[in-house]
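Lab meeting, action items carried over

1. Structure of the two-component assembly. Owner: GW. Status: complete.
Input record:
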Amino acid sequence: MTGILLLIPIALGLGLLGLFAFFWSLKSGQFEDLDGAGLRILIDEDEEGPQP
Amino acid sequence: MTMTKEHAPSADLPEALFSVPGMHCAGCIAKIERGLTATPGIDSARVNFTAKRVSISHDQGLTVPDLVAAIGRLGFDAQPVLDPTTLVKGEESKGLLKALAVAGFAAMNIMLLSVSVWSGAEGGTRDLFHWLSAMIALPTIAYSGRPFFRSAWMALRHGRTNMDVPISIGVILTGALSLFETIVHGPHAYFDGAVMLLFFLLGGRTLDSMMRDRAREGVASLLKHTAPGALVLDKDGRTSWVDAKDLARGMTMILATGERLAADGVILKGESRFDLSLMTGESAPVTLGVDEMVHAGTLNVDAPLEVRITAVGADTAIADIARMMEEAGQSKSRYVRIADRAARLYAPAVHTLALLSFAGWMMAGAGWHGSLLIAVAVLIITCPCALGLAVPAAQIVAAGALMKKGVLVKDGSALERLAEVDVALFDKTGTLTLGRPDPTNIDALGADDAGIALALARASRHPLSQSLRRALEERHATAADVSGLRELAGFGVEGVWLGHSVSLGRPTDGAATAAMAVELTGAGAAVLLTFEDKLRPDAATVIAQLRAAHIPSAIISGDRAAAVAPVARMLGLTAQTGMQPEDKLEAIARHTAAGAKVLMVGDGLNDGPALAAGHASLAPASASDAGQNAADAVFLGDSLMPVITCIRVARATQAIVRQNFILAIGYNAIAVPLAIAGLVTPLIAAAAMSGSSLIVVANALRLKGSAK
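Predicted assembly:
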């Protein structure tokens, strides 16, 4: 029984963590441009021009 | 990773949004963002590739045309997005996605607990697990159930019922009864069933909403946005750029060649030809001079003009058509979707059945607690999980298949209506034809002449020059080295090639030529290049296939009879000509009154009301903004074939939807007697529910290749 008392909160906590991570990513606009996000990895960072 | 210059503070700078349909790879993103950031006065630029848009924050000094020019220098065509409020925000999809995430989280965790109960947890452990499930399930039902509760409440308040009514009642009752079971230490709690139901249904809703957003985004990025504004001449002779919304009566606009009017007005100075094709359907440009009226949305073809504004915004002729469109569109909003039609029969049947089983078991002496438990099991098992998924799943897959073929379907009901059409009405200019002049005798040009023509045509924004340039570039002509290029307003372009003077312009013996010809003076003798508005490729095939599918077609056109006749003859269609927007509406009303379901295919502003009034409607991507907004689906490319593809896919979708309904009903026919007999445990309910959902989704996936 004690094992369950420990494990269930951990399982739920981890699930909630994932849920909040998803909400955060939705809010911070990471789902706005799904096609673009996939393409941006192909852009070379170290071309001319200042980087942020 | 927004490209921002290190020094500049990004706050308080104006933001401008541009639609750039031409970007198609990572290189384009980098080029636009880096190129714009390197432009003086631009602080940062961020590309949204999905929506094909760039948002630029810039210094006050830069105007919209400056920014368009800056994007143009990078090699992309840009259109300002004037009114960001009209953009698709995707708020609905976002809300549904959140609800789906919560329901998914809850369904997983409750299932974890339920499996332990099913596999034999007893006494205190079972109660603990039921309580944990309740703690997760009840807030989830309250949060994730809102889209259904809201829609069900709306329907009930108007004395109607829809799919969401049985869903809401089922979920709420299940939650309440399971809580009661938990309190009295009962053996069965259905929290897992209720939450899983929400999860499956939200999945369908979310996909449906995302599909609509995507199609609307696609259409929004095609819009040409009438005219963003105009160059206004003030009293002391200076010119300044004024956005369309700030234009006022009495201002004087300077209208360059190749520009669209941003407001209605009277010509003060100059004479030019106007392309009215999007307004009236007339294919040949019309010559207008001093004191004549010109309308917003028409294209100035020949020469620069000064125009005094007489009407802006809601007073323009365009706005009149928009109002007519709005009225015409109301009949469409009364259309009842197939799922809701099914629900009208389904919901009362389910509720009666649940009530009867409760009454039956009461009379059989099962006690009110046991009877209620069975009634709720009936509600859960009949809850239209498969039914709620059957329609959206099929429509999403079909819309996805069409999108790959370049057809943007705006929503699921469009597919339902497209499947029902039995008469097709076509506009001529821009719909059956391409709506742009194409050179007919370009192959007669020698290599030298072709090179000279290309060099000259590139120097002008005149529609005929642009068309000639496109045609020559398609034939891989290389531009000759022509110097001293000069555009003469109202005449054409001239330049010098190897010491000869060369020109491309209005034919010298004016009487011999109609509006659609230019004369090229190149290496040898002068050549007359003629243009015509060609039929779309496959137009004849499409009409023939429609006939084969028992859909008769006809032309309704705003153009003159003489211009329509050759097209009608070539396709073997009857035609009505010289029609005003009201006449087109009336033609549709006549067909509708005779019991026909009209498919309207059109592009122009003058087709807008007819597109809104048709039972279903299609517009090509080259259509006017109004046409694209009013149509149920927009197709890309020159070919007319998508008309057939749309109807075929829509009919295939309806067939799959019907199959899915039959599957769902069959499932109910097996499961409901079990539930009424009181044999359904939470385990059986969960298995039956997910099983039937998976089957209808799998069946819907068969539509994937339907657009081939």
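2. GW to write a short summary for the group page. Key points so far: The interface with chain A takes residues 1-6, 25-27, 29-30, 34, 37-38, 47-51, 94, 97-98, 101-102, 105, 108-109, 112, 125, 132, 136 of chain B (CB under 8 Å). The CA atoms of residues 163 and 343 of chain B lie 5 Å apart.
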